[in-house]
Amino acid sequence: MSSDLQRTMGLRERKKAKTIAAVQMHALRLFRELGYQATTVEQIAEAAEISPSTFFRYFSTKEDVLVKDNYDPLIIAAFENQPSHLSPLQAVRNAMISEIGNLSADELAMVSERNQLMMTVPELRAATLNNMFQTMHMISEMVAKRVGRNPDDIAVRTFSGAILGVFTSVMLSFADNPDADFAGMLEEALNKLEAGLPL
Q1: Which residue segments constitute the domains of the chain, with CATH numbers given?
Q2: What is the pLDDT of residues 93-121, one digit of tens each?
Q3: DSSP string across 70-101
Q4: Which burial class, exposed, middle or buried, applies to 48 when counting CB atoms under 10 A from its CB (0-12, 13-18, 19+)?
Q5: Measuring CA to CA, which residue among 71, 52, 70, 72 is closest to residue 62?
Q6: Could you count the other beta carbons within 10 Å of the beta carbon of residue 25?
Q7: DSSP letter assigned to residue 121
Q8: Whole-prediction pTM
């Protein structure tokens, strides 16, 4: 691939990410003002100055506007850059914590608000569960590649499920305590997993 094509694709991806973030920001504002159920896709699109058809180019449903994010590719890249001597769990922990650490205060506030809605609105919980299965598959694929196993291997899937369980518990705690240190809670929880979950 030529450097010009790579640059064009990079610009396209950045523009897409910027549009997604803007739509999510307007959606969150409308959900605050009108309530989640009362807000329509048309209202979100109008606030973001895009057409409803453009909205559906980025999000398949209204729920998707909160569940979808652009963090997975960043976490995968951070994971792949972890030193080879680290265990898979250490590599996952470092990748997640480093990417959370890269978020601005505004991005963290948006993550907190999205998380509170996803954990408290029944329709969003269902959509979040479906998204978690996709995240589990992503973790399985990146870990399997690192350890030279199949993503469908029961040991790899169990590992991914444990990571996802930890992440879910942290999301629930963060929804109850939105002013807490999300990265700190996640690191502590993953450290407990690495230590064998002592109680």
Answers
A1: 1-60 (1.10.10.60), 69-199 (1.10.357.10)
A2: 999 999 888 888 888 888 888 888 888 88
A3: SHHHHHHHHHHTS-TTS-HHHHHHHHHHHHHH
A4: buried
A5: 52
A6: 15
A7: S
A8: 0.78
